[in-house]
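User: Could you go from structure to sequence for me? I need the amino acid at each position, not a summary. Structure tokens:
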């Protein structure tokens, strides 16, 4: 006698259990992928911000080291003056360094805006006073959430050195020996950034400071 044929296959319950397990595994996998993607985006955003800050600090450092004793004629007094002005929260100078790598000299200006951060303004420096072009240029926020504080290194006649909170090249007829910049973050979790830039080309070839004025400081 012939035995009845047995048909192999899955029952409806087995198929339903397999689909339920597959759905559960896919849900766990998608949750894990979402968490990894969020962590990656968060870390990438932090890394991008750190790279932007590092690039901004590097450009400022190079521009300060490349500071140039740019001279121009004062239209009121018809005397030759050197362009460089600095306060404890503001600095404006002419540098041989340009972020766009353009030829010629570039005027730089750094200043604070409360509640926003540190702004940078750039303008070409020709043979005249670049202050008007700098004030007319569109500044860019380069360090959001930071406050910049500037100090200027000065050499006394006895060759001792000290830091000042301000500098006017119109008065000293030269540039400071160095500039110290401290970038203080508004968020305590962020790091303090610092720049100490030595200015090698701080003296003009023909315009010399008044030693009597220096003795009175």
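Assistant: Here is the amino acid at each position, in order:
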């Amino acid at each position: 006698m012939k035995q009845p044929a047995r048909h192999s296959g899955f029952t409806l319950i087995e198929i339903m259990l397999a689909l339920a397990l597959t759905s559960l595994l896919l849900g766990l996998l998608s949750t894990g992928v979402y968490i990894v993607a969020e962590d990656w985006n968060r870390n990438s955003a932090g890394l991008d911000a750190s790279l932007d800050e590092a690039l901004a600090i590097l450009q400022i450092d190079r521009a300060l080291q490349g500071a140039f004793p740019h001279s121009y004629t004062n239209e009121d007094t018809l005397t030759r003056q050197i362009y460089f002005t600095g306060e404890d929260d503001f600095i404006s100078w002419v540098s041989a360094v340009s972020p766009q790598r353009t030829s010629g000299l570039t005027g730089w200006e750094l200043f604070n805006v409360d509640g926003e951060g540190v702004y940078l303004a750039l303008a070409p420096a020709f043979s005249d006073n670049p202050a008007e072009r700098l004030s007319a240029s569109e500044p860019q926020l380069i360090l959001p959430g930071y406050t910049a504080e500037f100090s200027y290194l000065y050499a006394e006649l006895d060759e001792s050195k000290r830091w000042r909170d301000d500098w006017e090249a119109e008065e000293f007829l030269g540039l400071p020996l160095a500039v110290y910049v401290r970038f203080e973050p508004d968020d305590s979790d962020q790091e303090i950034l610092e720049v100490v830039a030595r200015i090698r080309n701080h003296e003009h070839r023909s315009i010399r400071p008044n030693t009597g004025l220096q003795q009175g400081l």
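One structural detail worth keeping in mind: Helices lie at 12-65, 131-136, 169-172, 211-215.
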